[in-house]
Design brief:
single chain; 442 residues; alpha+beta; Cytochrome Bc1 Complex, Chain A, domain 1; 2 domains; 6-stranded mixed beta sheet; 17 helices
Length: 442
């Protein structure tokens, strides 16, 4: 069987069924379990905000409502529980994954349940109505969480009125208006063999896998034109300072950040992942010490790098007392100016690189993490198919590559999102250091 491309050092094999469905297998030694992930190359970024906003996540829920062999939600759940397994799914902007982890002796059950869910889902109208209420409750849950709310506010600020600037859940209005016809149409467009990947990791027999996959998925036919790709307009932006006022909060929850023209296939993405870790990825990171250890302004400080197809975001979250908002904004704004011209120190880079590589090593310990990584990498044809391969790429990222990637910040306008009890005018006054920042002009 073919080795994973460009990764002869990784025990990883991949192939494609005649119907276009891709598969990837990562065997693991010393384990007695296995995970099957069916990844679909579709997510919230593939939606149209005007008529199916939130449909990707809605459909993810509905696939668990039953197919032909397991026609009821409880039957789907019992099939997994009875073999000691765990199942779940998630929707992101670019992909949706459905996974089952089981004792390896029950791997056939994982294939059976996933194939029936995704291929034979009946989506009964009464189940859709019940799940509509569930998703509205899920929206309420996220609205009650200020960290989730401020993250969504930042996405809207950075990308404006387009799918990447929206929420994955949709809005109350869009979910209340979602029809079964809209859901079924979305499913028929994107859930087809040539838009799916089956990733299997753990205690598996690689030699038998192609035959097994052909048995479960081989008769599923691909029909019609390929599905459209995710849409993104780089010229769209939201407001620079996005504010949500909630009088029930004692903290000000803020995210400061920017978008960069670096996507998932850009070699600079790894360099920025290292940089983000150096800035706010651990207890030794720069922003954690600057804001928490040196000044006591916050409990939680965290920097994230998130890459999409042609764009990425570098953002820092801080939860602080409202009276400290201006000081935190000023500190982070000043740091971003320095990052665009000076970057980080070589010691910071070395520490972050080793720490981040360690995180990838930890991900290599579970079949669940490996299979999910492999599924996404295969869907988007990323070079590093496994966490172990990504770890090697992190370790090979040079200091100069990190510095070069950070120079993008010198040309990237900063955005601010704040969820707090402060009135909008007070937040905008606190944002003055950001707006006067040299990197803050378009």
């Amino acid at each position: 069987m073919p080795q994973c491309r460009n990764q002869p050092e990784v025990a990883c094999e991949e192939g494609m069924l005649p119907n276009g469905l891709r598969w990837i297998a990562v065997p693991m030694e010393g384990v007695a379990t296995a995970t099957v992930v069916v990844g679909a190359k579709v997510g919230a970024a593939h939606e149209d905000l005007s008529h199916n906003y939130g449909v990707a996540h809605f459909l993810e829920h509905l696939f668990f409502k039953g197919g032909k062999r397991y026609p009821k939600p409880k039957e789907v759940a019992l099939a997994i529980d009875r073999v000691g397994g765990i199942s779940n799914a998630f929707t992101s902007y670019l992909n949706t994954h459905y996974w089952v982890s089981v004792p390896a002796t029950h791997l056939a059950t994982a294939f059976d349940v996933l194939e029936d869910m995704l291929r034979n889902a009946t989506i009964p109208p009464e189940e859709l109505e019940r799940e509509r209420k569930v998703i509205l409750e899920e929206i309420s849950r996220y609205e009650d969480d200020p960290e989730s709310s401020v993250w969504h506010l930042m996405q809207e600020s950075l990308f404006g009125h387009q799918p990447l600037g929206g929420t994955i859940l949709g809005t109350r209005r869009s979910i209340q208006g979602m029809t079964r016809e809209t859901v079924v149409s979305f499913r028929e467009t994107y859930y087809r063999p040539d838009n799916l990947v089956v990733a299997v990791a753990g205690a598996i027999d690689q030699s038998a896998l192609p035959t097994t996959l052909e048995r479960w998925f081989g008769s599923w036919q691909t029909e019609g034109a390929p599905p459209p790709d995710a849409s993104f307009d780089p010229s769209l932006r939201g407001i620079r300072v996005a504010v949500s006022t909630r009088t029930d909060l004692t903290q000000a929850h803020l995210i400061i950040g920017t978008s960069l023209p670096i996507g998932i296939h850009d070699p600079a993405a790894y360099a920025l992942e290292v940089a983000a870790f150096a800035l706010g990825g651990s207890l030794s990171s720069r922003f954690f010490h600057l804001i928490r250890e040196e000044r006591g302004l916050a409990y939680r400080v965290s920097t994230s790098f998130d890459a999409y197809q042609s764009v990425s975001t570098l953002t820092t979250y801080v939860g602080t007392a409202p009276q400290n908002l201006r000081e935190v904004v000023a500190l982070l704004s000043e740091e971003h100016v320095k990052l665009g011209t000076e970057g980080i120190t070589e010691e910071e880079c070395t520490t972050a690189r080793e720490a981040l590589a360690g995180r990838y090593a930890l991900r290599s310990e579970t079949s669940h993490a490996i299979a999910n990584h492999a599924a996404f990498a295969s869907l988007y044809q990323l070079a590093d198919r496994t966490p172990a391969a990504a770890r090697q790429r992190i370790l090979s990222t040079s200091y100069d590559e990190v510095q070069d990637a950070l120079r993008h910040l010198a040309r990237a306008p900063l955005h601010l999102a704040v969820v707090s009890a402060l009135p909008e005018d007070e937040v905008k006054k606190a944002a003055e250091p950001l707006l006067s920042n040299p990197t803050s002009s378009h």
